Input
Amino acid sequence: MSDCIFCRIVDGQIPAKKVFEDEDIIAFNDINPARPVHVLVIPKKHITSLATVTPEDAPILGKVLLKANEIATAQGSPDGFRVIINTGRVGQQEVQHLHAHIVGGPDPVGPMLKRI
Ligand code: 5GP
Ligand code: ZN
Output
């Protein structure tokens, strides 16, 4: 989708600091990090949100979660992290391309209001 900012990152039309990539997903640093480690993991395929997924998306959703620990550890959050997937209007999802926020760092992640 050419009007989707994260599809444009997938296509290389918008620069991002990629920290992981394979054939199905990419992970890159959030442009406005809320914590020392703040990575977004997204499917390369355009999926709007958890509100629109179908059973055929199960493998890719699994992959996003399966890679989270490896990405967090490599980025400096080896002792745990949070995964947040804001969804839809009530979830205050701002970018309409499904993404998992991985947030962490050297210290425990405290309570967070909407900021990520
Ligand atoms: P949401 O509120 O949709 O869950 O989060 C969207 C996230 O995408 C925000 O944390 C925001 O900082 C991040 N973001 C928005 N535009 C860009 C961009 O162009 N590049 C990167 N790396 N992150 C972005
Ligand atoms: Zn997209």
User: Anything to note?
Assistant: The beta strands are 18-21, 25-29, 37-43, 82-84, 100-104.
